[in-house]
Design brief:
Helix content is 44%, strand content 11%. It is mainly alpha-helical and 147 residues long. The two termini are 28 Å apart.
Length: 147
Amino acid sequence: MNNLHALATWAEPLLQTLTAKERTALLKRLAIALRKRNQQRIQKQRTPQGQPFEPRKNTAARPRALFTQLRKTRHIKTQATPASATLAIIGRAGYIAAIHQHGRVSHIEHKNGPTTQYPKRELLGFSADDLEFIEQFLINALAFPAR
């Protein structure tokens, strides 16, 4: 599958054979699996396309990994309905993630502090490997249903 739309078109008739409760459970398991893949990618300091994150500007004392707290399960929440599965970074962590995801200008440390332009560092997203993973996940889930 070359894109998300083609995958959705392929999967929709298969998912319609399930009841709403079964679809919700399946999509919840898929969202949890995708969360784990995104957490691993953030830990490796990589974007969904496999590019390394732009490093911090100030690493005077010692280099530190970016987003060590944002990748935790308590910040990346999953939600599933019979029609969709969602991953979202919530609360203050979501605000910080959005600044980096889109490369926005924001205040440093507190709202009265100086502002800076943060480089774009995609945290959540789909890669070609993720689309293949989703396809295989759905094939396995529908061929061998969980009991």
